[in-house]
Amino acid sequence: MVLDSGDTAWMLVAGSLVLLMIPALGLFESGLLRKKNAASIFMQIFFGLALLSVMWFIFGFSVSFGDSTEGLIGNFDWVFLKGVPSDAPLEQYAPTIPGVLFVKFQLMFAAITPLLLTGTIAERMKFNSFIIFIAAWSMLIYYPLVHWVWGGGWLAELGVVDFAGGIVIHTSVGMAALAAALVLGRRRHYGPAIMIPHSIPLAVLGSSLLWLGWFGFNAGSALSASGGVAGNTVIVTHMASSVSALIWAGLSWIRTGKPSVVATINGAIAGLAGITPASGFVSAEHAFVIGIAIGVISYSGVVLFKEKLKIDDALDVSSVHGVAGIVGALAIGIFASTAINPGGVDGLLFGNPDQLWIQAIGVAVAAAMGFGGTWIILQVLKRTIGIRVSAEVEDIGLDISEHAESAYSDEEEFLLDMDDYTEELEEKDEILFKKKSDGNKK
């Protein structure tokens, strides 16, 4: 196949838009958290971006997209990108762009996916545990799912489709968020008092940049600027997000008597996450309907998990990404049409009722992998190096105690926090010294 300059140019832009989403995620999440933990979120996200990028370069891409071994995992033929062409395509995946450009686009997905979990573990997870967690999560959960659905694995052979990641990314992350919240436990003083955002404008800026970047995320998954798929994906993505934002705003208004800014931006993100798997297969009219379903069901998920069950998923990743992604992935089985995407599938409304059950299998597998795999990883870490900061560290904040930095230049407050942290360390040293002295006397 001959490389297409238009497709190549579009994919260069699309990959950059997805990269923009990663710092945007930091802005969104830090704005919704308490000030004393704002810098820690950025450290997790930027360190995670670097670590996950290197992992993808060394072996992640190869085991995800390499030739399949019994439909379960790829191989090591492309480690360090050896053999991936820069002047020719990987025809089985993206026949009109350079192979290395396909690698780079998928790298952005591999980086942002585990980092979505920072919204769940926020304000209470040790940084060293976080590093091991996201690395293990990528190797044991994300890479296999990518291969099964996008790399020609057994779910792809079964007929499961996922245009841009509702199954591979949002379902797995959403259910992982539930598991992580349960294993970590609630933050200290759990309740409305600790859920007040420290900067709503920062969160709105982050959500706006996420919305912009999502056009690269979804429309870029067409892997081409040719034809109508990428163009249709853009309008479908925008419509579902807009509808879901209105739904969340309206429901918050009904429940509290006031329309909430935070609910509105969360609704927009839920709409983006939810339409992701279906965005390349459905019409704008059907995206409108799907957006309504995403908005209502994902908002209900927050009420169930946070308010009824008291599960401390700090920024509602389980609902905004998980529940929304499940709705969108199942919607493929109802609304997908080959008239929109000739390379896709037809759903129930277009004469193929079996697709709904096939999608349900994909969702169930991703949910089980996300929840079960995360539970196991965190339980191992919990019993070895520990996963949660001490109560004292949590009260002081992760910015000072984990990174000795503050997100804001309030010198007096910074010095007071550092004094508190230093006193805490001195108290621990005294206790340890006393224990050693008592032991020596015995």
Low-confidence runs (pLDDT<50, min 5 residues)?
none
Main sheet makeup: none
Whole-number mean pLDDT? 94
- CATH architecture level-2 label: Orthogonal Bundle
From the N-terminal CA to the C-terminal CA, the straight-line distance is 79 Å
Determine the strand fraction and express it as a percent band: under 5%
Structural class: mainly alpha
* Gyration radius over CA: 22 Å
Question: Please, could you describe this protein's structure?
Answer:
This protein has helices at 5-32, 38-65, 99-115, 118-121, 127-149, 154-158, 166-184, 200-219, 229-256, 261-275, 284-308, 317-335, 354-384, 391-396, 398-403, 411-441. It is globular. It contains 16 helices and no strands. Helix 2 packs across helix 3 (99-115). With 442 residues, the chain is mainly alpha-helical. The mean pLDDT is 94. The chain has one domain: Orthogonal Bundle (Ammonium transporter fold), CATH 1.10.3430.10. This is Ammonium transporter. It comes from Nitrosopumilus oxyclinae. Pfam families: Ammonium_transp (PF00909).
Task: Describe the structure using short key phrases.
442 residues; mainly alpha; Ammonium transporter fold; 16 helices; transport; Ammonium/urea_transptr; Ammonium transporter; transmembrane helix
